[in-house]
Write a structure and sequence with these properties.
- The structure is a homodimer.
- Chain A is of the alpha/beta class.
- The first copy, chain A, folds into three domains: 149 residues, NAD(P)-binding Rossmann-like Domain (Rossmann fold); 154 residues, Dihydrodipicolinate Reductase, domain 2, CATH 3.30.360.10; 83 residues, Alpha-Beta Plaits, CATH 3.30.70.
- The first copy, chain A, contains 14 helices and 17 strands.
- In chain A, strands 7, 8, 9, 10, 11, 12, 13, 14, 15, 16 and 17 form an eleven-stranded mixed sheet that branches. A six-stranded parallel sheet of chain A has the order 3-2-1-4-5-6, with helices on both faces.
- In chain A, strand 9 and strand 10 form a beta hairpin.
- The radius of gyration of chain A is 24 Å and the shape is elongated.
- Chain A starts with 5 loop residues before the first strand and ends with a strand.
- Chains A and B meet through helix 2, helix 6, strand 12 and helix 12 of A and helix 2, helix 6, strand 12 and helix 12 of B.
- Strand 12 of chain A pairs antiparallel with strand 12 of chain B.
Chain lengths: 429, 429
Amino acid sequence: MRTRPLKVALLGCGVVGSEVARIMTTHADDLAARIGAPVELAGVAVRRPGKVREGVPAELVTTDATALVKRGDIDVVVEVIGGIEPARTLITTAFEHGASVVSANKALLAQDGAALHAAAEVHGKDLYYEAAVAGAIPLIRPLRESLAGDKVNRVLGIVNGTTNFILDKMDTTGAGYQEALDEATALGYAEADPTADVEGFDAAAKAAILAGIAFHTRVRLDDVHREGMTEVTAADFASAKQMGRTIKLLAICERAEDGGSVTARVHPAMIPLTHPLASVRGAYNAVFVESDAAGQLMFYGPGAGGSPTASAVLGDLVAVCRNRLSGTTGPGESAYAALPVSPMGDVVTRYHISLDVADKPGVLAQVATVFAEHGVSIDTVRQQGKDGEASLVIVTHRASDAALGGTVEALRKLDTVRGVASIMRVEGE
Amino acid sequence: MRTRPLKVALLGCGVVGSEVARIMTTHADDLAARIGAPVELAGVAVRRPGKVREGVPAELVTTDATALVKRGDIDVVVEVIGGIEPARTLITTAFEHGASVVSANKALLAQDGAALHAAAEVHGKDLYYEAAVAGAIPLIRPLRESLAGDKVNRVLGIVNGTTNFILDKMDTTGAGYQEALDEATALGYAEADPTADVEGFDAAAKAAILAGIAFHTRVRLDDVHREGMTEVTAADFASAKQMGRTIKLLAICERAEDGGSVTARVHPAMIPLTHPLASVRGAYNAVFVESDAAGQLMFYGPGAGGSPTASAVLGDLVAVCRNRLSGTTGPGESAYAALPVSPMGDVVTRYHISLDVADKPGVLAQVATVFAEHGVSIDTVRQQGKDGEASLVIVTHRASDAALGGTVEALRKLDTVRGVASIMRVEGE
């Protein structure tokens, strides 16, 4: 084993960073054995130097992250600051000064992944980011390496723990959205401002990263169709249950059936209770992958938290250090397929539509005609009377989002349709 | 991209091999893009040359596997023959003649993994075998690389699809073992001689491989305690259900609580219905991994079959080809921890014991005394009368296998105990 240590600069020492520093110290011998050389924490860049950080020697702490990555003797920069800047500039500066980078920054990778990969390649360095998607769950490495000889057609996942906690709570207790959100906030599963989670921004960033890796193409954050889950109601869950389904906020990346384009989207969807994703509880994440040869795979685990995210960061750190010792780099961005990203209107799936309608003869015939005129085929209809009004729950066969949109627009114009109570996509069947 | 192709020799062209050959042809462009150079099938060694193999050019087929691996221009040998010989000699010959190896051979890896890894290292070549455990499910790479900075404490998995199919059938239909086995055989899930599956030999080989990788130590096939599932009855399932559990054949690899030793075992066990492994149906496999930092992860997918296994082989092939192009090798055997493997008697777990006892006062007191004398603490007791006899179902707290064995021996000597109907371990709680 080489005795001269590899030097690691840690950018950020919050929940994840402090755990990375702790494990680097407590598991130093194990890490050295796995890498083939010891690793040394050479510096820790923080914003607030005064804060006591257990296990991090005070002399390593600096507020000058730029000077740290420019030192020239750093082998690997671990970026766990998050956000776009200064993380982006620090990472490119790290490459310019000879370091490889391990990052947990999903927002940055989703927005500027292509440019960062290009910078890594120009300088012959590694950029690893297993921790950016689904925390500790090994997902990027399996997609990028284990399935490298296969053809992935679909990635369907629960990639946000906060929203899964809320939806699971609504499902199991019958609570409404606000009540479930309040509990998530009280328990620390949701942030004071939950927008990034509940509006699907966090999941959309992960979808962009996953779609790019799964399909060997470039998918930008703007390419991802995004709908949040704040409008999911207790009534939606009741309606789902009657059909043997539940509701999850899903990130869905698909290759079109003709193989010539891809789509990426985040929205609440009904899935059958028998689907492996239906039993993913609490704040857990799980990602379902369908490929030509492997068939259906699922990866399950904690999607966030200091320790799980640190585990993913350290796995990458070991790989990057090993590459460095052997003078090579791991697989970089693989975008050779260069497939276009189709708009949401082209997505083909099934729909669960609840309508409030007048309770008189001929309404179902009227409604069914509108579906038929738009080329949307109906699978099942449930009709329920309540107080002079009636509700119709319709589940369609597969149709394009555009066709469904046209159908709903026409339904709203019918006198007999008092309102469209909810529209939800049905996935995983 | 390099234009000179990497040359691949395929040993074996059965269900898996023919699928590997097919994907190498149909996905040639994709593979070339992912590797950075084209790959060419340079020869296919088979036992029966006369058989028509669709998609495999006749001029590539040979019965002389030894000559093929000795050619000297082969970059990667893909071994999908199975069994110990001639696979073992062919693999070492391949290393000696400059090739790296991708293998799907669990029996060989479990028995001679250490020697094969040593041969690979001497010659500076790769030995990859993702397909040897749980088919297409990425498991070896996540354990070896993604969790390389973490400390794995436990691996708990369903790693044999045949036995899971049989147990699932017994669970859902109430069928007995023989009836469920007959159906598995009729549907092609069980072989004519199902011994390797139902007696746990196949799972034990996988447990040895997994334990070695998870704990960075060497675990031989003989170190794995093995019990088959032929004695699991419909009554066991009924008893499990009453307690909110089901029965699975599990491979369990554990690090002792003091960290100083490991154990590996295969046996039927009861697990709670709420455990993620409980909902693994049919011939699917799933492996649950517990580590210090990542927490609980699960990997799920098809555990066998031509296409899924070929997917894993091709993922390895891409990695090995990439390593070869960059003049490096991937992580080899990691056995630095050199932990001893403890005997089954040292394993600590919970037990579910069904006793047929005389239906008279004082029996429970007698039985409870025996447990206490052996230091085995009782968690719950259920007593049921039937036709003058009674049955006692006892679930214990955690105790060593040795202590439980002593308890059962003493119970058998009690006049009031007519018989020990079943003993099953309880896991995953």
